[in-house]
Amino acid sequence: MEETAGGDVLPGTRIEVAREPTGRGGYRHVLFDFDGTLSLVREGWTEVMVGMMVELLLATPDHESAEEITALVRDFVAELTGKQTIYQMIRLSEEIAARGGRPEEPLTYKQLYHTRLMARIDSRREALRSGAASPDTMLVPGSRALLESLAARGLALYLASGTDEHYVQEEAELLHLTDLLGKHIYGAQDDYRSFSKAMVIARLLEANRVEGAALLGFGDGYVEIDNIKAVGGAAVGVASNEADPTGPPDPWKRARLLRVGADLLVSDYREREPLVAYLFPET
User: Would you kindly state where each structural domain of the chain is located, as residue ranges?
Assistant: First the structure.
């Protein structure tokens, strides 16, 4: 192991090792987040959501400065990233009420956000649909090869996202990931209490009669890393730079992922071979 100013890294790589993950070599199931972990189709969603929320909060009677509101919104959006979008909208409604405003139903805000986001990403979805864009240009670099490598080892692959399930399934199909993930693609439901990543993990472990140490997870958000670690699984934090996919790690993501307990840190999967070799040491 090599040591850098930021901690240990695997020799000859940029893969950070915060701590040795439990269960190395014994993983049988792998759970992936979607947006920012595999897919780049929704790159920029954070700016769309934060911008909308700041706009609405600045219209309340008792708001703080734009800088204070922006910092507040960025913090709670990040904290809730990985949960269903409706939870961020519930928090928005609470913040509007706390500042003397009269909030709409959270679903109304979710619909407004979705309209604004689609205006940003519809051209990407259409480019994939028409064949004008290659699916690999809208994936975190190395994603497909990593999935193929894990599947070739006999691991069962799962995808769980806070985005509405029908959009996750549609975008996974546009990215040609469905064959690799099969039926294990899960997302937000209209009845938001009936779905969470923690629920997916609990059902996965129960259905397969395995302990948490058999679970490996990849995610770029707070929630999925926390959920995976809570059951005793191993977590790879993905500090993807969505605006510059081959660029350096996103420092804001990196800091949050380390804080929540990610065992390893990567920015993409171009170094998948040493990553997989570390996670599955030869015996």
Answer: 2-40+139-279, 45-130
